[in-house]
Write a structure and sequence with these properties.
The chain has helices spanning 12-19, 32-41, 75-79, 87-102, 121-132, 184-188, 280-286, 300-308, 313-345, and strands spanning 2-6, 23-28, 46-48, 65-68, 106-112, 138-146, 157-165, 196-197, 215-216, 258-261, 264-266. By secondary structure, it is α/β, with parallel strands linked by helices. A 7-stranded mixed beta sheet has the order 3-2-1-4-5-7-6, with helices on both faces. The chain has a two-stranded parallel sheet with strand order 8-9. It has a two-stranded antiparallel sheet with strand order 10-11. Helix 1 crosses helix 9 (313-345). The radius of gyration is 22 Å and the shape is elongated. The two termini are 34 Å apart.
Length: 346
């Protein structure tokens, strides 16, 4: 089945779908810092580099599915039907505009769990209705998942929308995963002794990294960062990998941060040398990117951004397999029904 991807980023969602047997024929990403990484890791996918706002729907290839994570910073405006006037909100509406025009069999949209906050309830209901009424309409399924349940060594809560075109006659059912939870030790133990600090101004070490991208951001830690414990132990799952290197979790070689008072913690005195940020490659492992997926950047902050904004590959793979299985099951059911009708007619 052919699919297209919007807000593709480095392509974690795309890779998961590819691994499940989908063919990502076309993708869209506007951030120029990501283009080289996407193109070199997805050589068989056409990358459109325009903003989605400037892409006419008839220039998007015909497809069986549309996937992506539209930015949704304008929830309150969207709830009051003002979000379209906000450039950030407009991106979400353009995702729906193209969905309405292409009418694929299914779509999947991923977003942050913050959209479930009470103050966004009106906006959320509005967006659900837009999905349900796009074109001939979609049967919408909606659930918050935690990546740690899907063979991903990370606590990462995200909201997933899956829509099935109404004429197909079924509603997607989220499947319950049955994986043993992976830990930081499972994911990054073998990398513990080989990370390099970034060069001056957090520039990349490039080919000096024996393991590609195995380098970490240096520099101070903000008071906000120091207000909470940022260390998970080897036998735990990672904190959420965020899009900013300054907020990367601390490597599990360090002891848990010492509580001083509310919103104030410190590194354990005498152990300060153990507190380093996770490297770009360690973050990629935690997001379940394979080691042969190379991130290209000059400043390593771009590497953290690409990885932190991605959908974990294993989560994407699980969802893609589930969607594929249910589409095929439905198709088989209709074929058998038609055969029965033909037999009765004879």
């Amino acid at each position: 089945m052919n699919i297209v991807s919007f807000f593709a980023g480095a392509g974690g969602l795309d890779l998961g779908f590819q691994n499940a047997g989908f063919n990502v024929i076309w993708a869209n990403e506007y951030d120029k810092e990501i283009w080289e990484t996407y193109e070199k890791n997805h050589p068989h996918t056409i990358l459109d580099k325009r903003s989605i706002v400037n892409i006419p729907s008839d220039e998007v290839p015909e497809c069986d599915g549309i996937i992506g994570g539209p930015p949704c910073q304008s929830w309150s405006e969207a709830g009051a039907m003002k979000g379209i006037a906000d450039k950030r909100g407009q991106l979400f509406y353009d995702f729906i505009r193209i969905l309405e025009a292409k009418q694929p069999k299914f779509f999947l949209a991923e977003n942050v769990s913050g959209m479930l906050l009470g103050r966004h309830s009106e906006a959320l209901e509005n967006i659900k209705e837009l999905f349900r009424n796009a074109g001939v309409g979609y049967e919408l399924s909606f659930e918050m998942v935690n990546a740690c349940d899907y063979n991903v060594p990370q606590d990462r809560k995200r909201v997933i929308f899956v829509g099935i075109r109404k004429d197909l006659g079924f509603t997607y059912q989220f499947q319950k995963p049955n994986f043993k939870k992976l830990t930081l030790q499972d994911a990054i133990w073998d990398l513990k002794d080989s990370a390099l600090p970034a060069k001056t101004s957090n520039k990349t070490n490039g080919n000096d990294c024996k393991i590609p991208n195995h380098e970490y951001m240096t520099g101070g830690f903000s008071t906000i960062f120091m207000s909470r414990n940022r260390v998970r132990s080897w036998d735990e799952q990672s904190f959420t990998i965020q899009a900013g290197g300054r907020h990367a979790p601390i490597h599990p070689q360090a002891p848990k941060m010492k509580f001083i008072e509310q919103n104030i913690r410190v590194f354990v005195p005498g152990k300060e040398d153990l507190y380093r940020r996770l490297s770009v490659r360690e973050c990629a492992r935690i997001q379940t990117f394979p080691d042969d997926f190379i991130f290209h950047y000059d400043n390593i902050s771009a590497g953290y951004k690409m990885i932190g904004n991605a959908v974990p590959v294993n989560l994407a793979y699980f969802l893609a397999n589930s969607i594929k299985a249910q589409l095929l099951q439905n198709e088989t059911k209709h074929q058998l029904k038609n055969i029965s009708k033909e037999a009765v007619a004879i």
